[in-house]
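User: Hi! I have a protein structure encoded as tokens and I'd like to know what sequence might fold into it. I'm fairly new to this, so please keep things simple.
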């Protein structure tokens, strides 16, 4: 991924901002645009950028309620009703694959949340396709030319989603060591493929079927019944129900790719969900992502 491409994605995300904030955000140097992972807006506060080293302010910017309303209008293409289902879950996926998370006053009702009013802060995440990111570890995840079930692990913000997206792309289109596979992608939060109006905004391969916005424990059996996948990919296994979905798919004949938060084997084993993932016996490989930014490295190992 070139610095120019990374910076261009930042500039695309800035198109969601109101004019005066967009003008300030676009004055940054190229290297800072390329490194920015998120744009954070909080009422009454300066605009902050999330970079590998932490949050950095954009000088001489103060966010108003009107600014947040304008970002939401642009992200939903002026149809919040059409985006009501994802707003209920705290985010909107804008054209280009930009995920806008929102925080404010929740409206609980029934068994869940009915929406968010009085929005007080927004975060625009800037996804970037890093084609080839998974190439160094892919050979270690194959047996007889076919992928085996693998866990991708790192602390939050460590690059798991980016690596998983590229693995899905490579397995879907095929590589020198692996024939193309039918991949079923469970994109519960719209971060992997960033589907917008039925079309993935981020490249996930020509043999990939995306189930967008559906909880993993519901999506996995649906995909097994309907799409006969050879690989099932899911992001952020964090709940007991997610582990149940993984275990239920264990005997289906499909390889599973999943991500989870953990900085070390000890940390993974110390968490109930992490222990359950290891104990279910589904996963045969683990990929640890270490470091951040340009210092990021991947290490693959066999699981007992």
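Assistant: Happy to help. Inverse folding works backwards from shape to sequence: for each of the 304 positions I chose a residue that suits the local structure. Here it is:
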């Amino acid at each position: 991924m070139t610095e120019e491409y990374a910076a261009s994605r930042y500039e695309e995300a800035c198109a969601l901002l109101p004019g005066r904030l967009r003008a300030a955000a676009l004055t940054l140097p190229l290297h800072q645009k390329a490194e920015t992972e998120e744009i954070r807006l909080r009422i009454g506060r300066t605009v902050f950028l999330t970079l590998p080293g932490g949050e950095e302010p954009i000088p001489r910017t103060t966010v108003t309620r009107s600014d947040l309303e304008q970002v939401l209008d642009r992200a939903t293409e002026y149809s919040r009703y059409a985006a009501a289902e994802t707003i209920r879950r705290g985010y909107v996926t804008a054209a280009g694959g930009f995920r806008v998370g929102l925080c404010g006053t929740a409206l609980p009702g029934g068994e869940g949340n009915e929406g968010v009013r009085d929005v007080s802060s927004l975060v625009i995440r800037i996804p970037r396709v890093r084609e080839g990111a998974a190439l160094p570890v892919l050979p270690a995840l194959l047996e007889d030319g076919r992928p085996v079930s693998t866990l991708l692990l790192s602390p939050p913000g460590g690059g798991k989603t980016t690596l998983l997206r590229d693995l899905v792309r490579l397995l879907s289109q095929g590589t020198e060591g692996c024939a193309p596979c039918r991949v079923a992608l469970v994109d519960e939060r719209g971060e992997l493929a960033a589907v917008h109006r039925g079309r993935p905004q981020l490249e996930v391969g020509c043999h990939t079927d995306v189930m967008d916005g559906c909880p993993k424990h519901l999506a996995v059996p649906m995909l097994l019944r309907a799409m006969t996948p050879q690989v099932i990919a899911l992001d952020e296994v964090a709940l007991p129900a997610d582990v149940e979905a993984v275990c239920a798919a264990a005997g289906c004949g499909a390889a599973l790719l999943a991500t989870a938060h953990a900085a070390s084997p000890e940390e993974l084993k110390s968490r109930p969900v992490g222990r359950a993932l290891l104990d279910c016996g589904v996963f045969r490989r683990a990929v640890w992502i270490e470091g951040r930014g340009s210092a990021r490295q991947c290490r693959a190992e066999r699981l007992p």
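A useful reference point when you look it over: Residues 62 and 246 are 45 Å apart (CA to CA). Feel free to ask if any position seems puzzling.
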